[in-house]
Amino acid sequence: MKTLQQFPYQQVLVLGLARSGEAAAQLLYDSHIPFKINDITPFEENKIAQHFESLGVEVITGRHPLFVLEGVDLVVKNPGIPYKHELVNEAVKRDITVVTEVELAYYLVDGPIVAITGSNGKTTTTTLVHELLRAGNLNPLIAGNIGKVATQVVREQSNGQPVVMELSSFQLKAVEQFKPDIAVLLNITEAHLDYHETMEDYVQSKLRITENQTDDDLLIYNHDDSVLTKSIQTSHAKSFPFSVSGSYKEGIYVDNGMIYNQGEFIIDTKDISLPGDHNLENVLSSIVVAMEFNIPNETIIRVLKSFTGVKHRLQFVEQVYGRKIYNDSKATNISATIKAINAFKEPIVLMVGGLDRGNEFDELIQNFRNVKYCVAYGQSAKKIQEACERQHYNALSMVENVEQATIKAYENSHSGDVLLFSPACASWDQFKSFEERGDMFLELVHKL
User: Fold this and answer.
1) pTM of the predicted model, to two decimals?
2) Domains in the chain and their CATH numbers?
3) Regions of the chain where pLDDT drops below 50
4) Residue 182 to residues 217, 228, 363: CA-CA distances in angstroms?
5) Which DSSP category does 310 fall into?
6) Sequence ranges of the binding site for ATP
7) Which terminus has fewer CB within 10 Å in the chain: N or C?
8) Residues 72, 88 contacting (CB under 8 angstroms)
9) Are the beta carbons of 150 and 101 closer than 8 angstroms?
10) Annotated binding residues, as ranges?
11) How far apart are CA 181 and CA 197, in angstroms?
């Protein structure tokens, strides 16, 4: 496995363990670079910390004292730890460089990087790009929410293998030198304001994906997104637009249900297996990446006809007595659920709810054009009910949890309906992750 060579930092603090912190710590240990670990989980409950202490690494757990910054010239923080955290804030004040493990991964790369970000569609696009490159016999590697973190993946890279990375705003906010050969900006919608605090900070964090790109690199962006179209003007990369609006005819675009790349017909959207118009953004950007790697059109078309998506992302579960059931647990914000609703023409029985992040749900209710019934659950159920009242939508039930929501949704559905689990909220009021939430929904569906 590769290790860090000619690393410019002398003493590193790994702040927060979990998957990314553990991978960063292992890389630093294998590279013989001095470092220490600080993690909030108490030592007696922290197997990762126990492991590294047994290797002779200094470990401080259970709290975040400021003295851990003494002698440190680099902090590698868990992406989920915000900059307003006292320790991170103090590191910035002391001019200590703060990064995420993606930055460490960049020191190891010896092949092309495809980096993908956006408020919605990152995982689906990352997976589709990986499938396209694999079908083109390029032996690509993949890093992101699915599978291994970037540092682990890049350590296994050899012979110039392409690496396809899914990157969040949390990761991108803390990069310094990271520069992808191809960057994909899918969309920008209001999200994670509990972390970023302002929309401006969120947008600027996303844009860091192209900050270090040069005119030798490529930026693929959504021309239909006015925030992106305006913001990318500062990028030095070659830009390539995609559009699903039907009114823009440059780059790669959709026109009357057909996909064209710079005027050349590629595929009829009816032949694409991924459901929903919103997935066309993911498809268009993925096609451009594949073409940059000179993958033949026939190979691209074959993959698009067979690729059905990713677990928990508008995933078709099964048909129960004429009802088509979909698991979209990854829809952790309102815009993602609106896109899921718009993917169907059939009547929908919708299950929504989860962590209350302070959002109002009026925009969601305004898009209930074919939602015949809604079941709200969890911490945000009351706010959803209040939004329904303001929007004069009455076909609503409130329940406590996903199990009750699934039963109630089924009871209010008929053959020909779509049962759509697309929560529009984060999962953390009742679950550790959207995956755990989606897995429970899958189990409940199989019991219907």
Assistant:
1) 0.80
2) 12-99 (3.40.50.720), 103-306 (3.40.1190.10), 315-446 (3.90.190.20)
3) none
4) 6, 16, 34
5) B
6) 118-124
7) N
8) no
9) yes
10) 118-124
11) 30
